[in-house]
Amino acid sequence: MEKEPSSSNTNRPPDGVPIAIFASGAGSNAQQIINYFKNDPTISIALIVSNKPEAGVLKIAGEEAIPSLIIEKEAFFRGDGYVKELQNRNIEWIILAGFLWKIPLSLIKAFPGKIINIHPALLPKYGGKGMYGHFVHEAVIAAGEKESGITIHFVDEQYDHGQSIFQSTCSVDQEDTAESLAKKVQTLEHRHYPEVIEKLIKKTQI
Ligand code: GAR
Which of 45, 173, 178, 200 is the most buried (most CB within 10 A)? Predict the structure, then answer.
């Protein structure tokens, strides 16, 4: 299912390297990335992809006049029509920002070394299936960790597993709850993810 923005009034640059953001949730990281590249003529957020019709990120796409695509489960795991769709739009990089489905091999093969993810913990700890959002922070606190943080990494065919690109840490204090730790981690995500994306893309191909 595909939705074109109702407004043609977009301030996206016409020519930058086209990237797609995949997200399943609220989209706060997607929003940061969109804001960061708004005035950068070399990188363009060309598409928002989600697996959830009710995801907040789709509202952001509408407000920002960025085309969006909802991928259904069957098509994502058993078809590869959406790969064509990404290629037709000349997408060069895929940025996962809270996208909760495992990325199928067909997509990894179509975008080798060009799919990156952010995870709200210091991988390799606290990653894998079911490790997202508050589950991660609860596990970190339950284990008595003194430190947590973020990991930005290349995506391979295992959950939260590919080569690490960047990590940043924050303290886990005695009084921290999953909610307060989530806030600290989110601050790191918003501060670093757009910059890391920019450095990586510019280093690789501009
Ligand atoms: C982010 O904290 C991201 O690290 C996490 O989902 C959140 C999405 O928030 N991703 C994972 O847990 C992946 N395993 P957002 O929708 O507000 O950007």
Answer: 45
**What is the pLDDT at residue 9?**
38
What's the pTM value of the predicted model, to 2 decimals?
Answer: 0.91
CB of 26 closer than 6 angstroms to any ligand 1 atom: yes
- On whether both 140 and 72 belong to a single domain, the answer is no
> Is the preceding peptide bond at 124 cis, omega within 30 degrees of 0?
yes
Ligand 1 pocket check for 120: Cβ under 6 Å: yes
Tens-digit pLDDT profile for residues 146-192: 999 999 999 998 889 999 999 999 999 999 999 999 999 999 999 99
Best residue among 36, 119, 179 to mutate for probing ligand 1's pocket (most ligand atoms within 8 Å of CB) is 119
Which among 86, 61, 170, 191 has a CA at the least distance from the CA of 121? 170
What is the 119 CA–ligand 1 centroid distance (Å)?
A: 7
Examine residue 1 and state whether it is found in any structural domain, yes or no.
yes
Query: What is the rounded distance in angstroms from the CA atom of residue 56 to the CA atom of residue 22?
Result: 12
Identify whether residues 105 and 123 lie together within a single domain.
no
Same domain, 142 and 86: no
Residue-range definition of the domain harbouring residue 29:
1-112
